[in-house]
Write a structure and sequence with these properties.
Layout lengths: L2 E3 L7 E3 L2 E3 L2 H10 L5 E6 L3 E3 L2 E5 L3 E13 L4 E5 L1 E10 L2 E2 L4 E3 L4 E10 L2 E2 L6 E3 L4 E10 L9 E3 L9 E5 L2 E3 L16
Parallel strand pairs: 4-7, 5-7, 6-8, 7-9, 8-11, 9-12, 10-13, 11-14, 12-15, 14-16, 15-17, 15-18
Antiparallel strand pairs: 1-5, 2-3, 2-4
């Protein structure tokens, strides 16, 4: 996994008082913590996710952007297992081959206080692909100028084999520049 640091400091992320040179090293440490641990990975600088990686598993992991930007490059992807929260981050995409986040069956992704823009590509879910039997919770999110084959922001799989897909959204904005040419405030979801 290659994650490049975009800020001036030498570290990309931290867990408690331990600093990590790359976001992938911090996520690997969080994944390796004792089963059932609650671990927070905090960005220290803006970072770029350039390859696919898995986060979660037997632990509850929070990825706190600490108001930094995470740029998901063309093949950068987080596959989520277990309970994962992504919060306080600006997600920036571009022309992509895959979705940025994939929530696997039986798992939950909570996205809080974040924005995501510029995700485009020929795949399902511009930002998030939610598999059957998985759940996505979005609180106070802003999603603009994202496009995918099915679902510019979120693709919910059809629930055929592993149970229903669940989505909860509260305080979120979903719009594109062409939907909002005069800079009007977008409509917010509630409940």
């Amino acid at each position: 996994i290659v994650v490049s640091v975009l800020g001036p400091d030498e570290f990309a992320a931290k867990i408690g008082s331990s600093n990590y040179a790359t976001l992938s090293e911090a996520i690997e440490a969080a994944n390796a913590a004792a089963a059932g641990a609650e671990v927070t990975v905090t960005l220290i600088n803006d970072a770029a996710l350039s390859e696919a990686m898995t986060i979660g598993g037997a632990n509850k992991i929070t990825l706190d952007g600490a108001a930094h930007t995470l740029t998901a490059e063309s093949t950068g992807k987080l596959t989520l297992g277990g309970a994962v929260e992504v919060k306080n981050v600006t997600l920036v995409g571009g022309e992509r081959a895959i979705t940025a986040f994939e929530v696997t069956a039986g798992n939950v992704l909570t996205m809080t206080d974040l924005s995501a823009s510029g995700f485009t590509g020929d795949y399902n879910g511009g930002v998030v692909f939610v598999n059957t039997g998985a759940k996505l919770v979005v609180k106070n999110g802003s999603f603009s100028d994202n496009a995918g084959r099915n679902g510019g922001v979120i693709y919910l799989a059809d629930g055929e084999s592993n149970g229903a897909v669940m989505l909860e959204a509260d305080g979120c904005s979903f719009y594109t520049e062409k939907d909002n040419p005069e800079g009007l405030s977008p409509k917010k979801s509630s409940g």
